[in-house]
């Protein structure tokens, strides 16, 4: 995306009166969070985290609320075979594909009140603004609540948008078993739970059955960049590439007191060196490296581990750079295990995930950028360079990665306090929620206008 | 211990005829290992490891075997309140305290056939040799089987010799609960299990009630030094100092994809740097550092751990050097956590064990050394310097550490294949078992003679 290549769409006169309401937005967020609230950390009613696992009873409650909320403002509600909920607000042209907003209402087991939830509620607020101003858009505008985005209960992230995009087979998704056993001692599948809570829809879960003209997703940044740079809105150009590996280091379990250093095959010490090295290599390429899981056997204070298994998550904006990070890690790891670990350890790499970089659509990015510029125009210029919006690459995956395969897509990021997410203390201020929702509304209206001007309706 | 200070006791004419029998020794070891054999790794009947947990049914069986074996050669058997089994073979002077041999018959859950087992069986073989040659020793010679040396079932290592030495209170030992639940779903205490298997003796568990004149323990080295240097017998001068710590690293759990390197408080990366550093520091002092346990929370591939807890086992022959290793680790760890871990992590140290260096008694060391010299005399000179015995410091703790508090003590080490111990494949060849047992017998007879010559009887 190069801003200079595209027309700078300014239609402030059209959208100036269409303002999202902060109070209504925040009320909707926090009222909805009554379903699944958990992990209280303060006295205020809103000072809890969330544990709304996909397709559990609290997820049914928030789904019922979603349905009644969108129907109360005249939207047409439907549910597909994956439980994805769609709300459509018809425009002047009722045949054209809808411009969609959306995100998800499920959370992590120790999640917060904004990840996903802000995106759906901002879309609902945008629809409410259109409704109360009786705006007739050029084409239909809609909102989607995707099922099981977190992949926390059924272990496949963004699985339901994946089925919609025909990137994940329906049966694969339906047969996913939950991670932990239910109260009755069994593990339920997605299909069983969709049926149980009444959200196994008839509508085929496919972009062919329910095509989008475009998709816009508002989300908290989940990182510290906007906050640290004192900016307000992230205009998301794409999602960085990432790869997940499970690396097994094999040494020998010998006694911590009787084995001289030179005679050791200390798999934990070797793994520690590899983790430090991966970090150094990734930093050298301006990429990321993280070890989130490490297990060791046998696990006794005075016995070296014979086996250490750890995960390595490496990321970079550019696919080629990620490949270089991986290549360098593989080469250096081999050297460290063979030559820098006393009597040596052996290594095994297993690739778990390979997710290439995603590039969002330039028209959607432009719509978000232009909306962000307008929204930020009258705010105090807190950033050192005075620019309150920033072109960003998402560090995390989102449903937008799958929609991007089937329709023009972009995302909007809001400030996330201390960059903390997937945590009960996750926080985005009411002001920032409002700015995000306003940017979302502006982007959707701009895109709607654009397609009309282009004669696509 | 300085060899030149002590008389070089040579009494080959006395002991030459007293030869341990390799076949009888190995038969005793492997017949006894039928009780608790586990973890088969080869076709030969002896190619299994052991899982004879202290005071379990197989431990009762081997204890019954111990009792009948020593009684069959005319020894007096007794059991104390900790289930320690004592066998005495009276000498010319029946009033003097006995010179004791001993070790333990319990094993690790994935243990081998030699750790502890060799020491008890070598003592039994020594008693058999005295018995069959009808030798009248100067004073009484005895053998002890200590309870729960491993600390694997009841989590306190060498607890029963600790009670004997009055270093551990009897009630503390009795009330120790087993690590895992029993078949009936409860956790038994040592006292309950002593009662259940019929080994809760009446005899007070105390060195005051049952004093030793001296104590000699034969044990596999459990390390690779003798094997690598192609020597045969370790003459053990003492046990190195060690300290155990549990170190907690606290950072922040943030998203692996959305958190830039500079904004991280990655507790796993910090812990990895600390483990590498501890190893470097210990190496610099010619000491040891090992991390045998590491746990991290929350444990998700794409989330940094907020907390990592790991154990640090540091060892050195000299107490002062160990203190220096600890001091340097504390100082460097602080620097790494505060200044070399991006936004920084916090550290907490918890000391679990502080075991100062143990120095065995010079008379016992001399007896072992002189016996080893004699035993090695006619063997092929495999070591590069031709010396088949070596003065050594034990890397691991043993019951001998506690006896050393109450009577002159030393130990004898035998070659351990590949230095592997606490493992089903632990191995000491029949030839090396024989050399060890012969050295034990010679050491005991030398010490017995010495005390007579000194007029201590």
From TrEMBL, chains A, B:
Residues 242-338 form the Peptidase M20 dimerisation domain. The keyword Translocase does not apply. GO terms for molecular function: hydrolase activity, acting on carbon-nitrogen (but not peptide) bonds, in linear amidines. CDD domains: M20_bAS (cd03884). Keywords: Hydrolase. It holds the Pfam family M20_dimer. The keyword Hydrolase applies. It comes from the Eukaryota. Belongs to the peptidase M20A family. PANTHER family: ALLANTOATE AMIDOHYDROLASE, ALLANTOATE DEIMINASE-RELATED. This is Peptidase M20 dimerisation domain-containing protein. It comes from Lithohypha guttulata.
